[in-house]
Amino acid sequence: MNRIIEKLTNHLVKKPKTLFLIDSIGAFLTALLLFAVLQNLTKYFGMPKTTLTILWSIAAFFCLYSALCFLLLKEKWRIYIRIISFANLLYCVLILIFLFIHYEQITALGLIYFSTETAIICILVYVELNVAAKILKNNYDNQMIPGSKSSL
Fold this sequence. Notes:
The protein is mainly alpha-helical. It has one domain. The chain has helices at 2-14, 16-37, 42-45, 49-72, 77-101, 108-138.
């Protein structure tokens, strides 16, 4: 697994724009699942609708942030990558808090879903922070990425 993450990190250091695309797609899928699926099946997952609304709203905001970074950024990748990685980490903490608060209502299916989502996001955060560190180390932050049109 470490080898795969190392290879992915090295690729994303050269194409940090792709990291924002991955993050945006992931946040979109999370928001969609929370909004369209889990809210209609609360009895199977156990998380209250108001909590799910908070979570899908945050995921939708992260989707927008990452999509805008993907579309508009040409340099200074590291700071924006760090922002979304810390935001993702805080989102995971929020999920854990909600699981604790609603523990007696959460079903086994809900626990599996939210644990899996948290694990996937934590792996993404790990990759994002490694990419940000390597960008700083390699001084890619202010360089034009091949294929981009212009710098800000």
